[in-house]
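User: These chains co-purify. Model them together.
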Amino acid sequence: MKDMMPKFDLFQPADIETALKLLDKYGAKAWKMAGGQDSLDWFKDRAKRPDAVIDLSGIEALKGIRETAAGLEIGAMTTLAEIAANPIVKEKFGLLATAAGRVASPQIRTVGTIGGNVSQDARCWYYRSGLDCYRAGGNTCYAGTPQGMNREHCLFGASRCVAVTPSDTAPVMVALEAEFVIRSSKGERVLPADKYFIGPAVNITHMTVLEPGDILMTIRIPSKWAGAKFYYEKVADRNTWDFPLVNVASAMKVKADGVIEDIRIVCGAVECVPRRLNAVEDIVKGSPQNEDTATLAASSAARGAAPLNFNHFKIPLMENLVKRAIRDS
Amino acid sequence: MSSPRIERHKLIDRAFHWAMAAAMFALLITGLAPKLGISFEWLLIHWVAGLLLTVIIVGHIVRALFWQSLKSMWFTAADATAVSSLLGKDVGPKPGKYSLAQRLMHHAVTLFCLAAIGTGLVMLAKIDSPLWTRDPYLISAEAWGLVYVVHGLAALIFVSLIVLHVYFAIRPEKLFYLRSMVFGWISRDEMTANHDPALWTDHTSRHEGQS
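Assistant: Joint model of the two components:
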């Protein structure tokens, strides 16, 4: 990392309309900055050189947690620390509070936002180093080679690029069936979480559907899973401050007799998008929540995995996390 | 009574043409649409269509070598006369089965199609598939750069060629050629008006006197 950023024009709009106009004006040369925890690294590394930085932190409409008749609305610029400490989130959607509290370090969570966390870019070493890889617009993946440093990379869904989603909260959004409200000068659109994240087969240079003129406004979490049995666990090399090697988020409804009525279970850091484990869900629905069910489900968690040279360890890790999620929710 | 019909394209050749067209459109749409901001899972469709096009082209080459008249696609001294006549705004001599413009179009499509297919086949080494494992070290980084440039350039030139081809195919005075690529025939009147029957090297008459 170098110590001086290339110059850019900094804009700090106070309302959405002004921000959208600026985004339209600068197009792909604009950079939307939320908490800035990742942006400044990119600039200092000189791997991203925007002409204009649009700092969204002054837009009050993008902040706050609101309870609605349909569930919960969280402004995209709400900080992770605020979400982790919010009593409504903790009471109804403890899964999200836990995941938000596991992101990075307390200092970063105080500034980092939920919108920035779910929309963050890949952490692949080669991409971050400014190499001309597929994700950077080139025609080579350096991590997917036999000698490549691919310990942190994907088990599923590789399409030339082998990067994974590094987000701690993205799997939670898919598990809770969240909706993402996106605005541009053309209007507003609402996407389910599993459509918000995109893999390299769809667009190799983007992790989300956000286009240059788009702003993620709000994340809506429906009340469907409020108060369900949740499980979140993140395994990282350093527990104090690191990206996940694998994380798991599950929301489960269990009948009085202990039978699993409904479940959504999602793993992060194993694919470019949060990976919903449909086979696991199908196996455990209608079965009692116990060790046997968890063991059976775990055995199918990594079905279809295509490990790279140095990330085979993610398969048993993923299986064990799924087992614990089913058994210990 | 209308003019007798002359077979211009056999069923198998029409099938080759339309199969090629479908594969090329699939390749161009899947290759270019993502560049225009339309996101979808294009890669699988692209390389499968590319392999299909390769098989079709190989079939066409084999058929052209052994069952068709290569001579009908050659350039002759008469073509020089045709060009000089056009420059002098004279009508010039009539061509054989294919006009000079049609042969030029065919050869341009051949050149850029082979360039796109050749580079595309090499690029398959960059991806995994059920049939092979990727090997990005197949050629040097510099050679990869060249492969990508040639592939992209061929694709862009292809777009221009297809626009030209479709434009001339749907011009009113050329519509009988399009019909012949659908139904296989042109009328004897159309043939004699636009071609020299003596130079039409591989025609066989069909349904003469029936229509």
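Chain B has one domain: 7-199.
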